[in-house]
Amino acid sequence: METSLELANMTRVHQFVLLGFPTRLGIRDALFVIFLTLYLLTLLENTLIIYLVCSHSELHKPMYFFLGNLSCLEMCYVSVTMPTLLMGLWTGPYHISFVTCMTQLFFFVSLICTECTLLASMAYDRYVAICCPLHYPLLMRPQVCLGLALSSWLGGLVVSAIKTKCIASLTYCGPDVLNQFFCDVSPLLNLSCTHVALTELVDFISAIVIFWNCPNMALYTLASYVAIGRAVLSMPSTTARHKAFSTCASHLVVVGIFYSVTIFIYARPKRIEAMDLNKVLSVIYTVVTPMCNPVIYCLRNKDVQVALYRAMHWS
What we know:
The protein has 12 helices and 3 strands, in the order αβααβαααβαααααα. The chain is mostly helical. It has one domain: Up-down Bundle (Rhopdopsin 7-helix transmembrane proteins). α2 (25-55) packs antiparallel against α3 and α6 (142-168) packs antiparallel against α8 (196-211).
């Protein structure tokens, strides 16, 4: 009877307060300008990459096809999280409805899962190009590339639907303050008044659902680069080895940062208590990485540089 009364007295949370970065007004204004600049720069860089890949026939290759998909993903990525970050810096802590919060969570998790598979597809492309060059036209024909890209996007949507359903099914009865600048998994779990063991079990199971392929993808990506490294070391030409290493090393750095941060935050079967650390790490993979990826992957590439020069010259 007492349990029934307690449940009856619970008022379901219909909105949350995103705490964001609770600093002084002057600091918030400076951060707003910085993050807005980074957001616009990220959109500009990735839009430029997509335009170059689509409009220049010399970039109609599997590697650039995947880079175009990655640029599209990065634009969606920052557009999911950055608006709430900027709003928090502009107004301070503000309210977000439960439905809007879960919608943001759905798209955010979907894009994480998509990037896991997409990065693995890019590693596979580099592996085939360096280790099996004679079979490259067959193994990376357009139908295969399209299938890999579609499976990445659709797989992310399916996995995210399961994850979001798990999080949305929990009971939230206050306090309603999320110590984050967007609706993230760990802050939401910290607000749940569902039994702690059940909450952590839901998080653990849903984390496995998300990363059932990500550790595999991470291991597959690492194995691909190990095979690439062996193939490169066996090349007789110093110039060829340098070219291959310069291409793959930058890719491996991006992959390492992405997997290390995301797995640290999401693939742990318990709540994260250090939410301030969580926010700092979140800035790395939601703001910094999408801005740096176009430079690391594309704008340092000679083919892209030539296409960019031609585009600027024609204009």
